[in-house]
C-alpha cells in the first residue's frame, strides 16, 4: 500500500481488462507514467 499526499488529485477506475479490479492513481503517478497492476487479474497499464 502506498501513501497519497492530501493535495494529490486521485482517479479511481475499474480495470479495463477484467472490469472487477479497482485502480487508484494519483495525478503525479499519471504524470510520471508509473505502471499500475490490477489486484484481481494482474493486468498492468501505464
UniProtKB/TrEMBL annotation:
Domain Small zinc finger protein HVO-2753-like zinc-binding pocket: 5-42
Ranges annotated as spanning the membrane: none
Entry protein name: RNA-binding protein
Organism: Nanobsidianus stetteri
